[in-house]
Design a protein that fits this description.
- The protein is built from 16 helices and 8 strands.
- The chain has about 450 residues and is an alpha+beta fold.
- The protein folds into 2 domains: about 170 residues, no CATH class; about 150 residues.
- A 5-stranded mixed beta sheet has the order 1-5-3-8-7, with helices on one face.
- β7 and β8 form a beta hairpin.
- The radius of gyration is 29 Å and the shape is flat.
């Protein structure tokens, strides 16, 4: 498949997954097709279908369809209103970056689809029931279908009320973020190089043409072009970072400064196909967005307006699961090679992820020892898993020292900070033992 088609397919899949209207629109049209098909079925008295067909008159059928249509419109307005309340609650109390999670929530889309199907089916039925030369000859089986959709809508209302009340709980929100982030981690490539090729002084920059966040990057789509022209390509922005038109998006260079460099415009179209830029960060290849959401929840909980350190501790516990999964994965720049040519996609290393997360929560929660202890537990988990990786152990040790230092400076009572000191000392001893075993 062409590189541009791959990127457009990825963008379309991401949009459809986060659009609240797509599934209801599709299901509503499917309901019209099913209603038309049922309207063609001639029910013979005494048959099996006659037992389930609507028995009333055409006037009764029209009254029923009118009632269903009006009721469903009211229910749709109620559901959308409750959804907006849930969105406002999650945005103000937890993080504005959680809004997309609710829009992507499949149960919400399914419930709205049931209501849309009921409305479209019943409204379309008014065109055929009780009109024409023989008003008593109407599609009775199709009217039964409207009744079935009505009962499905009632069940959907009860399910939606239960689902909404659970989905706005902070535990459920953070659990979903954790699960989706783990799915992204499982898709991370393993072709990383800790010391990738760097652009030499004679490298030629290629400017970005649009603004937004880098959401996807596919080095394998640039590698054939790089090999054809005998050049190497390195992106200047990582997935999740923002680009501005006119700034450097990538650099290309030959192996020697006196080699002729092809026209950089040749690579602009290829970069457009291989690098996806969107108006917001997504989870397609961006592990950091899930971490950012949990950090937002923790920092919001630690703000003076909320004062909820337990929620912050829960957020750190969920991040511990994420970092435990990251601790066993190769993290760093992705490099595709074809002979002397290479394509480099920069990416964060484990220590960078750890430093960003711990730094934000540590600065906001350094005055609360329980938060510092939660961070140290997270670091202990990382050290236990990455016990043979000296670089990651050093990153863990550095963060542990910063956490203890900030806790000692910000905590007023020495007795309160003593558990933090003890946990930090035990962690550093464990790290030293892991280093000794690795040598």
């Amino acid at each position: 498949m062409h590189a541009g088609a791959v990127r457009r397919r990825e963008a379309a899949r991401e949009y459809v997954g986060g659009a609240l209207w797509v599934l209801p629109f599709v299901v509503g049209n499917a309901a019209l097709v099913i209603g038309f098909a049922l309207a063609q079925v001639d029910v013979v008295p005494g048959s099996f279908l006659w037992n389930v067909a609507f028995r009333g008159s055409s006037a009764d059928a029209r009254t029923l369809l009118l009632t269903i249509t009006g009721t469903v419109v009211t229910v749709i307005a109620l559901v959308l209103g409750l959804s907006i309340v849930a969105l406002q609650l999650s945005s103000t109390q937890f993080s504005p970056r959680l809004l997309r999670n609710f829009l992507r929530d499949r149960p919400n889309q399914v419930v709205l689809s049931v209501f849309m199907a009921t409305f479209a089916y019943s409204a379309a039925g008014l065109l055929t029931v009780g009109v024409g030369a023989e008003p008593e000859k109407f599609p009775r089986l199709a009217v039964t279908g409207a009744l079935a959709l009505l009962f499905a809508s009632i069940a959907a209302v009860a399910y939606f009320a239960d689902h909404l009340s659970h989905s706005i709980q902070v535990d459920a929100i953070m659990r979903r973020v954790e699960r989706e982030t783990l799915e992204v981690i499982a898709r991370l490539p393993r072709d990383v190089e800790l010391v990738p090729p760097t652009a030499p002084p004679w490298a030629v920059p290629i400017a970005a043409k649009t603004s937004g966040y880098v959401v996807t990057a596919h080095p394998e789509q640039l590698l054939p072009l790089a090999a054809t022209h005998g050049v190497s390509i390195a992106l200047s922005r990582r997935v999740g970072e923002h680009v501005v038109p006119g700034t450097v998006l990538a650099q290309i260079w030959t192996s020697r400064p006196d080699d002729e460099l092809p026209d950089p415009h040749v690579f602009e179209h290829a970069l457009d196909d291989a690098v996806g830029i969107g108006f917001e960060r997504t989870r397609q290849q961006d592990v950091a967005i899930g971490i950012r959401q949990l950090v937002d929840v923790a920092c919001k909980a630690l703000s003076p307006a909320v004062n909820d350190p337990y929620t912050a501790i829960q957020a750190v516990d969920h991040m511990a699961v994420i970092f435990a999964a990251m601790a066993v994965r190769p993290l760093g720049p992705r490099v595709g090679r074809a002979g002397d040519c290479a394509v480099v996609i920069p990416s964060r290393r484990f220590g960078e992820y750890l430093g960003t997360m711990c730094g934000l929560v540590r600065r906001y929660g350094s005055a609360e020892p329980t938060v510092s202890l939660a961070l140290l537990r997270l670091l202990d988990t990382c050290a236990s898993i990455a016990r043979t990786d000296r670089e990651r152990l050093q990153a863990v040790a550095d963060q542990a020292r910063l956490i203890a230092a900030d806790a000692e400076r910000e905590t007023r009572q020495a007795v309160d900070v003593e558990p933090v000191r003890s946990a930090q000392s035990a962690l550093l001893r464990r790290i030293e033992a892991f280093r000794a075993l690795a040598e």
